[in-house]
Specification:
Largest sheet of chain A: 3 strands, antiparallel
Oligomer: heterotrimer
Number of strands of chain A: 5
Largest sheet of chain B: 3 strands, antiparallel
Structural class of chain B: mainly alpha
Order of helices and strands of chain B: HHHHHHHHEHHEHHEEH
Number of domains of chain A: 2
Shape of chain B: elongated
Order of helices and strands of chain A: HHHEEHHEHHEEHHH
Distance between the termini of chain A: 84 Å
Strand content of chain B: 5-15%
Number of strands of chain B: 4
């Protein structure tokens, strides 16, 4: 029995992603480096197979998963989980993921809206978790993301989150177009004429 | 065209147009789509193709307030968050109308009243886009699937030694569910509790077992039960057991407790009329 | 996407063995004979791979299974497998955590069921411990949580345990919700005159 086959078997039998640590723990008779090498060999050979599923690195471990482009076939008999995430869930998740650990007040400051309901539903979905309490007056709860978050979104680890875009990319309209119209000085004056009437 | 339209055209460009666009899309849907004041502001900045770093505050404020007004006119509930932002915008606007003071010591950087808002908007924009990117990934259980067929050998072996997997939230939530299930007042109004005899309860359990093959203990003890009723149910179950009318199962250590009718169990092959 | 890969994906994602009938039903765009051929090709190629799992025909269809001779490795999962809490353990643990120190009778009073078994298993898992005996008739044992309990939940101390109130606060609306008429109250009348015209 070859080491790659043993590892393949272990990962296949597991119900969640299997980390290198766990593999070495389960295979004390093998060298950790050998396990690591065998792993990347396995990933490569499954990729080369070009079959219906592949070995992917996710949530700090390895797992066999179907290839996304086969979705149309799988859904013919596997019930898919409900809908995609709402914009507010995704925004909140992103904030928690990039800024963790952080408090509800910090999330709300960034989003400008109450986030209690969203946080609670993310807690219930086990996508975020309570990490403890912050050492500031009032000792508010602090939140972070979970392993399930990485699993659901197919992320290797938190470092593989998409890099935050720089702001200049806000829109692709060439600079000159807006420049002429809206220098603040003049714009201000004109606008003044009709805006205040709204609040008198 | 009336004066209102002209006024706004004169001042800028097509804000009216952009507002109209929003309306023609079917406004209630469109308005609901704004995920808070920051989202609305970003939308306005994009629609007007403005430079986020140099927001013309008067234009944005007016359009923002128009939207809120529109929501009100459409009888949509305007969340407090939107109003807080309106106040912020108005405050910034009024501060920008004031002649620029000599830069005060210690806060030269903040001379622009818009600075804080712009910073928040820029940051929000980042997370919003990151959220969209994350949401566009192939999701487990939707686009990507794992092996669902459990390894038979592993499911059989339940392990007591291994690491524990449970979250704090689940712990608190378990406590909440428990307290919700038995409200405090029920401890005190035993006298007022309905008179529900063990016999009644036995009949109820038996009729339940006619409908289904098995009943879970938690199903029998409903949320609204008084403590007395819980005890009566329990005694009824003991009695049913003694009479060998039901059998009790627990699949795993600490698992749910199940009751099955003793008769069906004996016949082996369940399908009874 | 090749037919064998599609079939492989379908069988992999299914929760039971998949029969040829079921496959042709799910893949009406393919010929039944082609499906049959692809299937035996798949079986052969997985056998040739000589990996940790294979495609086998079992009662009623095809299924991916770990190879029987690897069982000694598969069972190693059990040792390191994370065990999930049952609802009753979780409830009991929560009661002990939030109401400690307390007796078994007090736990049972709250849960309305016998808790001897659950308490014993929590003791074995070293999540709770016996703090002593209560000075009342019968001198019942009193229970509290352990250091391991704090470790499992990643808590610094018992004070960091989130309270019920804090979880319920997630459902609360923020305070400023009340300032209903902030800027618009006054504007209402005048605004009426010019705003609607914007949308004509």
């Amino acid at each position: 029995m070859s080491l790659p086959a043993i590892i393949e078997c272990l990962i296949f039998a597991a119900d969640t992603a299997v980390s290198l640590d766990r593999l070495s723990e389960m295979l004390p008779e093998f060298d950790r480096d050998d396990i690591r090498t065998a792993l990347s060999g396995l990933v490569g050979s499954h990729e080369a197979r070009d079959g219906g599923f592949q070995l992917v690195e996710v949530a700090g471990g390895w797992q066999f998963r179907t290839r996304p482009d086969f979705q149309q076939y799988v859904v013919r008999h596997v019930k898919t989980k409900a809908s995609r995430f709402s914009q507010s869930s995704l925004e909140t998740l992103a904030i928690v993921a990039y800024r963790q650990p952080l408090t509800r007040a910090e999330v709300e400051h960034l989003r400008g809206v109450d986030c209690g309901g969203v946080l609670k539903s993310l807690l219930e979905k086990r996508l975020i978790r309570i990490l403890g309490k912050k050492d500031i007056p009032g000792r508010p709860l602090i939140y972070g993301t979970t392993k399930e978050f990485l699993e659901v979104f197919g992320l290797k680890d938190l470092k593989s989150l998409p890099t935050l875009k720089e702001i200049q990319a806000l829109d692709d309209v060439p600079q000159y177009e807006r420049q002429e119209e809206l220098p603040l000085g003049q714009g201000e004056g004109t606008a003044e004429e009709d805006t205040p009437s709204l609040f008198e | 065209m009336n004066s209102g339209v002209q006024a706004s055209l004169r001042n800028g460009r097509e804000e009216t147009q952009t507002l109209l666009d929003g309306l023609h899309d079917g406004y209630s849907v469109h308005l609901d789509a704004f995920d808070g004041p920051m989202d609305l502001l970003l939308h306005l900045i994009r629609k007007n193709e403005l430079d986020i770093c140099n927001i013309p505050i008067a234009v944005i404020t007016r359009q923002y307030l128009d939207y809120i007004k529109l929501m009100k006119n459409l009888n949509l509930e305007v969340a407090g968050d939107f109003l807080v932002m309106a106040a912020t915008l108005l405050q910034i606007k009024s501060r920008m109308l004031l002649p620029l003071d000599e830069p005060e010591e210690g806060e030269e950087e903040e001379a622009d009243p818009r600075a804080e808002l712009i910073r928040r908007l820029m940051e929000y924009q980042q997370y919003k886009e990151a959220g969209l990117l994350i949401g566009a990934r192939a999701l487990l259980g939707r686009e990507v699937f794992v092996r669902t067929c459990a390894e038979p050998f592993l499911t059989a072996a339940r392990n007591e030694e291994g690491p524990l997997e449970v979250s704090l939230f689940e712990l608190v939530d378990a406590f909440r569910v428990l307290l919700d299930r038995i409200p405090a007042e029920h401890f005190h109004d035993v006298a007022a509790a309905e008179t529900f005899s063990i016999a009644d309860c036995i009949n109820e359990v038996l009729s339940l077992l006619q409908e289904r093959d098995s009943v879970q203990f938690d199903d029998l003890v409903r949320d609204d039960f008084t403590r007395e009723r819980v005890i009566v149910t329990f005694l009824a179950l003991l009695e049913l057991c003694r009479l060998k009318l039901i059998r009790i199962f627990q699949n795993s250590h600490e698992g749910s407790i199940w009751f099955v009718p003793a008769v069906i169990q004996d016949i082996e092959d369940p399908p009874l009329p």
